[in-house]
Amino acid sequence: MTPVSECTVVQEQAVEWMLRLREGDLSVEERAAFDRWHADPRCSEVFARLARAAGAFEVPRRLGVKFDDVLRTADTRGMSRRTAIKGTALGVLGVSVAAWVGVRGIPGQGSLRTSIGNRETIALPDSSQLVLNADTSLQVGMSGDERRLQLTHGRVLARVAPGSSRPFVIATRFGTIRALGTVFQVEVGSDAAEAAVIESKVQIRTLNGSVGVVEAGRRARFSADHIGPNVPLRQSETDWTRGVYAADDVPLEEVIENLRPYMHGAIRLDPAVAHLPISGVFLLDDPLRTLNALPQVVPVKIEHIPLWTTISPR
Amino acid sequence: MSGGAQVLTERDKRRWLITNLFTDHYPWLKRLIRRRSGSQAVAEDVASETFLHLVRLPALEAIDEPRALLSTIASRILYKVWRRRDLERACEETLAIHYGPQDRSPPEEKALLLESIRLIDQVLASLSPKEREIFLLYKIERATYAEISQQQGLSISAVRRVVAKGLRLCLLVTADE
User: Fold this and answer.
1) If we measure between CA atoms, which residue out of A201, A223, A225, A231 comes closest to residue A213?
2) Looking at the predicted complex, does its ipTM rise above 0.85?
3) pLDDT, tens digit, for every residue of A42-67?
4) Which among B122, B120, B135, B125 is positioned nearest to B165, based on CA atoms?
5) Which chain B residues are closer than 8 Å to A46 by Cβ?
6) Do residues A27 and B147 lie in contact, with contact meaning Cβ atoms separated by under 8 Å?
7) I need a labelling partner for B47 at 20 to 30 A (CA). Which of A17, A97, A278, B106 fits?
8) Residue A60 to chain B, least CA–CA distance (Å)
9) Among all residues of chain B, which has the CA nearest to that of A306?
10) What is the distance between the alpha carbons of residues A18 and A26, in angstroms, rounded to a whole number?
11) Distance from A269 to chain B by nearest Cα, in Å?
């Protein structure tokens, strides 16, 4: 819950001193000022509380525990309980269900979100199947006349249950993809989305009304007002659903984009090496091993500390 | 004390309001929470804590929709209760991995872990994903402002602001305990 209260003056001062002390290089005058401030028992009390609270972040590691593991376990528990309580028909396990907006007993409505490093397969009430890539979020809306998913982030593969006359639609902020009994994949990026069709075909309708069809074995990128050319699927288009990423002479940049949903923390890729061509098979669930193998095939050096990876020219 | 009588009447009025709110809505609230949580014990606890929150509010007489307000406060408390229990179980499970299912972890270790996890959870919940990352880089990885700023593409002063926000939250979430 977000604390709505504001900090008092003393609390603000405590925060400021805490920052200054870690920044170091306090002048003699500053040090004396801190001592004077700290001599006031009200101030030292707040400062001690802050030090204790801030120190809590180091406790799990000291006990040999990763705090994010614990939080994830707790999230999963909360999710399964909420699922049980709402009696929803979505068979989600291990997916953290962010917000059940307007559930109220209507099955098949809600938000699905996968965290970094976790792919999930989900059965929809109409027995269509979704495979969510790691770090993906979408909203499900099943109504009498339409099956509609809003993909806000990431990539999803849909195996649409045949035999229903209800249109199956995946909406993105650039436009919608409409299908009837088909297998296709949608990925949404920051400036465009891409539809890749494995079976049958889909229709793209961009936000500004351009319409195009993508046939099986082809893919197309689209923005709000433009649909790019239909190009052949990549050889290993849906391998990610099995936890594998096979790169065939693609720029390093693209390899990293595919690994990113599986990496905690940030990856900084030096522009000087972003376009180096890479070929190889990578295990998505062990992205670090993959990255660490890169220097053997291309002239890069990898520096890795937890939550932070840098890839630069060697 | 000329103002004494006045203060007393105000307080009486308030007490009367609270009594009314309690008799009118307490049984309803308890039923509502029992339906949501499936537990009588949780319903009792959460309903009484909800009223404790309510009586701390100023301007009780200005509440138009007491049931809407009560149900909002109650959901927040219920979420807290659940989250607390989830975190507790998650801590136990994690320690069980380290110490085996017989759970030979020292009890003080469990208490310490749970306390820290609860605090981390509350602080992180009030930060955006980007802020969270910055604060964790600072706290867990002990990165400098310069390192974080280079990595996140933010100015050093922006990074410092986020860290200050995180520290302020550390104080705010420990204030009401």
Assistant:
1) A201
2) no
3) 999 999 999 999 989 988 888 878 88
4) B135
5) 171
6) no
7) A97
8) 6
9) B141
10) 12
11) 10
